[in-house]
Design a protein that fits this description.
CATH class of the largest domain: Alpha Beta
InterPro entries: ArsR-like_HTH, Carb_Metab_HTH_regulators, DeoR-like_C, DeoR_HTH, NagB/RpiA_transferase-like, Tscrpt_reg_HTH_DeoR_CS, WH-like_DNA-bd_sf, WH_DNA-bd_sf
Number of helices: 10
Number of domains: 2
Radius of gyration: 19 Å
Number of strands: 16
Largest sheet: 8 strands, mixed
Order of helices and strands: HEHHEEHHEHEHEEEHEEEHEEEHEE
CATH architecture of the largest domain: 3-Layer(aba) Sandwich
GO molecular function: DNA binding; DNA-binding transcription factor activity
Function: Repressor of the lactose catabolism operon. Galactose-6-phosphate is the inducer.
CATH topology of the largest domain: Rossmann fold
Protein name: Lactose phosphotransferase system repressor
Strand order of the largest sheet: 6-5-4-9-12-14-15-16
Keywords: DNA-binding, Repressor, Transcription, Transcription regulation
Strand content: 15-25%
Length: 254
């Protein structure tokens, strides 16, 4: 396997699964631990990861849509199906950027809904569904991340109203704060929250605590969290104190 390909696979493994040991990466890629150690040194020199005792962790930052779309697809589909069940025909829905929102859009075919989005992949998915009134927000195109951002997007949102917002995240802190790694997306997410009656956070197990340096909102601005695994005790307590309903894909947590 070429070094460049190994580097791509190492970064993908760290970004999707969190910190990993040299021995685990060696087994996953089918190369020697010594080779992995040399790869980690090179990737650290390039500023793409940080070596820790016995392994490495990825540096926080944006991940291209196409790369993230391949990760945890079954988990995202389970979350999307549960989220879609919250929506009644005739309602208006805001869909955030990200791959879980895209998986949710795939669940909406054949429904009588209004869908508002800054997510170009959601737009492409629903563009030919004549039963759905589709509103694409304006803004500056972020090509690799398939989204629209900027003051035009935020201004559009001030003129709109939605029954539901389905919000993505990079991480949820134990205090219930919703975080994001992409600072430029945060004002759009905040504008989406203001434009919606109810906010539903879509977060798979990797998002607890996940990553992110920019705060999107606190737990008091959420109504529901849909996830695929039990939430840790500290985060659950913070969400419950704020009156947030935690819904497991497949069943509801009291």
């Amino acid at each position: 396997m070429l070094a460049e390909r190994r580097h791509q696979l190492i970064l993908r493994a760290l970004r999707s699964g969190g910190p990993a040991a040299v021995t685990d990466l060696s087994e996953q890629l089918g190369v020697s631990p010594a080779t992995i150690r040399r790869d980690l040194v090179k990737l650290e020199e390039d500023g793409l990861l940080t070596r820790v005792h016995g392994g490495a962790r990825a540096e926080e930052g944006d991940q291209p849509f196409a790369e993230v779309a391949e990760v945890r697809v079954a988990e995202k589909d389970a979350i999307a199906a549960r989220a879609a069940a919250l929506i009644a025909d005739g309602q208006s829905v805001l869909l955030d950027i990200g791959t879980t929102a895209y998986r949710l859009a795939r669940q909406l075919h054949g429904r009588r809904l209004t869908v508002i989005t800054s997510n170009l992949v959601v737009y492409e998915e629903l563009a030919d569904d004549e039963g759905i009134e589709l509103v694409l927000l304006g803004g500056m195109v972020r090509r690799e991340y398939r989204s629209l951002v900027g003051f035009l997007t935020e201004d559009n949102l001030r003129q709109l109203h939605a029954d539901w917002l389905f919000l993505g995240t990079s991480g949820v802190r134990p205090g219930g704060q919703v975080m994001d790694t992409t600072v430029v997306e945060v004002p759009v997410k905040r504008a989406m929250i203001k434009a919606s009656d109810k906010t539903v956070l879509l977060a798979d197990t990797a998002k607890f605590p996940g990553t992110g340096m920019a705060k999107v909102c606190g737990p008091e601005e959420l109504d529901v969290v849909v996830t695929n695994a039990p939430v840790d005790a500290a985060t659950r307590s913070s969400l419950e104190e704020a009156g947030v309903e935690v819904v497991l894909a497949g069943k509801v947590q009291a």
